[in-house]
């Protein structure tokens, strides 16, 4: 079983490195290196990334806990959500639950992370691996980080998606750049993946290069 999962991991790394979303190779390699038994993913979307995260973690751990945060069907209840957060259209909570149930111990938390994350961290449960890729506004990413940093240990690894090489006026509204640059060098170590992916953002009508950044507590 673990050999099959390892071969899947190798295949996915090669697939991403040869494709248009090369930065995801960094994400999966980070899971492989961290060997987490607990994972938080902020921004579940269609659940495909969750499968990859869980299966990579299960190379080393028979039991994996996965916590997925998203608006799920609530996404469609708010107007201008795409323009505000540059988010993707997620599947329903039920569909994701059915997709992931057999892979790990799954807990899906529906709603705005500005409300669901503060409630979750009251449990004071330390989590090994966190992937932040939910709402893309600076305000939302900062809010997600403010909550997540309270439940990470020195063994934990946090990965931010959406570090942009783009016009500065956009960086004041979108992406994790401001959050990363505001981190204390005495408290956290951050590292930008050397490979980025270039996309044309049809909502902002601009071309942008996207990187992932890892953050560890010192």
Name a few traits of the molecule:
single chain, 218 residues, alpha/beta, Rossmann fold, eight-stranded mixed β-sheet, 9 helices, globular
Account of the protein in words:
By secondary structure, the protein is of the alpha/beta class. 37% of the residues lie in helices and 24% in strands. It is built from nine helices and eight strands. Helix 3 links the parallel strand 1 and strand 2. The chain is globular. The chain starts with a helix and ends with a strand.
Summarize the structure.
The chain is an alpha/beta fold and 218 residues long.
Secondary-structure map with pairings?
Elements: H1 2-18, H2 23-34, E1 38-42, H3 48-57, E2 65-70, H4 81-85, H5 93-100, E3 105-110, H6 113-121, E4 129-132, H7 138-148, E5 157-165, H8 168-171, H9 177-181, E6 188-192, E7 197-201, E8 206-217
Parallel strand pairs: 1-2, 1-4, 2-3, 4-5
Antiparallel strand pairs: 5-8, 6-8, 7-8
Helix pairs in contact: 1-2, 2-3, 6-7
End-to-end Cα distance, whole Å, is 35 Å
Give the uncertain stretches in residue-range form.
Answer: none
The chain-level mean pLDDT equals 91
**Which homologous superfamily in CATH is the superfamily?**
Vaccinia Virus protein VP39
- Biggest sheet character: 8 strands, mixed
Q: Could you say which structural class the secondary elements and strand pairing correspond to? A: alpha/beta
CATH topology group: Rossmann fold
**How much is the radius of gyration in Å?**
16 Å
- CATH class identity: Alpha Beta
Number of domains: 1
- Give the helix proportion (percent range): 25-40%
Number of helices: 9
Report the strand count: 8
